[in-house]
């Protein structure tokens, strides 16, 4: 075997060893990483659409500006709504969800004030109004996009109303909800819909 061919093969074997080592390390890290299930969710781009009946009772929450509210009172104007569950220390699913909402806000343009964008914390014991306000600024949230916290019990109650409660914040799934305004039935989108998907759902509900 001539020297160039032998060198090429050795180099190829060397890169293969490095790649296998990296894959092994990534697998080990994923096993230890509490967010590993979120990473798997990010790799699945399929969207599952369904309808869910939501009984919105006046559950007490606290808005990012520290004002006590209920979701019922916040949505009493019956504007269309896009709603998601997040928590500020999440590093995978939640930032993607919030980026989608930010993109939705941008696409709405001058119409953004006619739609509610709602983010509700599933880790309210950590997510104080101050933390939510800072988090909202990272995504350039305008006044029509509000973030909510409250007691853990009340956060769970809201999650259960939307049939989105998974028992623990680390098990939460990528899911968003769309309502054309004042409707009991909400469109549930499991996965990561695009902002265009959300706007299409809004239009269909409003015009349907």
What would you say this structure looks like, in words?
With 208 residues, the chain is an alpha+beta fold. It folds into 2 domains: 3-32; 39-207, Glutaredoxin (3-Layer(aba) Sandwich). The protein is built from 7 helices and 8 strands. The chain has helices at residues 3-32, 36-42, 71-74, 93-108, 129-138, 152-161, 195-207; strands spanning 48-53, 60-63, 68-70, 81-86, 116-121, 145-149, 175-179, 185-190. The protein has an 8-stranded mixed β-sheet with strand order 1-8-7-4-5-6-2-3, sandwiched between helices. The termini are far apart. The model is unreliable at 2-44 (pLDDT under 50).
Report the β-strand fraction as a percent range.
15-25%
Specify the biggest β-sheet: 8 strands, mixed
Unreliable residue stretches: 2-44
The shape, in one word, is globular
Mean pLDDT: 82
- List the helices and strands in order: HHEEEHEHEHEHEEH
CATH class of the largest domain: Alpha Beta
The value of Rg in angstroms is: 21 Å
Count of distinct strands: 8
- Return the CATH architecture of the largest domain: 3-Layer(aba) Sandwich
- In the sheet with the most strands, the strands line up as 1-8-7-4-5-6-2-3
According to CATH, the homologous superfamily of the largest domain is Glutaredoxin
User: Structurally, how many domains make up the residues?
Assistant: 2
CATH topology of the largest domain: the name is: Glutaredoxin
Descriptive key words:
eight-stranded mixed sheet, disordered N terminus, 8 strands, 7 helices, alpha+beta, 43% helix, 208 residues
Q: What's the layout of helices and strands?
A:
Elements lengths: L2 H30 L3 H7 L5 E6 L6 E4 L4 E3 H4 L6 E6 L6 H16 L7 E6 L7 H10 L6 E5 L2 H10 L13 E5 L5 E6 L4 H13 L1
Parallel strand pairs: 4-5, 5-6
Antiparallel strand pairs: 1-8, 2-3, 2-6, 4-7, 7-8
Helix pairs in contact: 4-7
């Amino acid at each position: 075997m001539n020297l160039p061919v032998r060198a090429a093969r050795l180099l190829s074997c060397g890169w293969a060893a490095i790649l296998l080592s990296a894959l092994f390390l990534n697998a080990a890290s994923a096993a230890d990483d509490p967010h590993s299930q979120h990473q798997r969710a990010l790799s699945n781009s399929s969207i599952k659409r369904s309808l869910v009946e939501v009984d919105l009772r006046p559950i007490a929450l606290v808005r990012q500006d520290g004002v006590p509210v209920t979701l019922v009172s916040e949505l009493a104007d019956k504007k269309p709504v896009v709603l998601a569950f997040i928590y500020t220390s999440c590093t995978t699913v939640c930032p993607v969800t919030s980026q989608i909402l930010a993109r939705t806000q941008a696409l709405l343009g001058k119409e953004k004030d006619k739609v509610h964008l709602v983010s509700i914390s599933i880790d309210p014991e950590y997510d104080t109004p101050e933390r939510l306000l800072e988090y909202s600024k990272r995504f350039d949230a305008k006044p029509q996009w509000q973030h909510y916290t409250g007691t853990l019990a009340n956060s769970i109650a809201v999650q259960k109303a939307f049939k989105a409660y998974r028992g623990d914040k680390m098990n939460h799934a990528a899911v968003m909800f769309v309502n054309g305004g004042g409707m009991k039935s909400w469109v549930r989108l499991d996965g990561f819909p695009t902002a265009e998907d959300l706007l299409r759902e809004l239009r269909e509900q409003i015009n349907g």
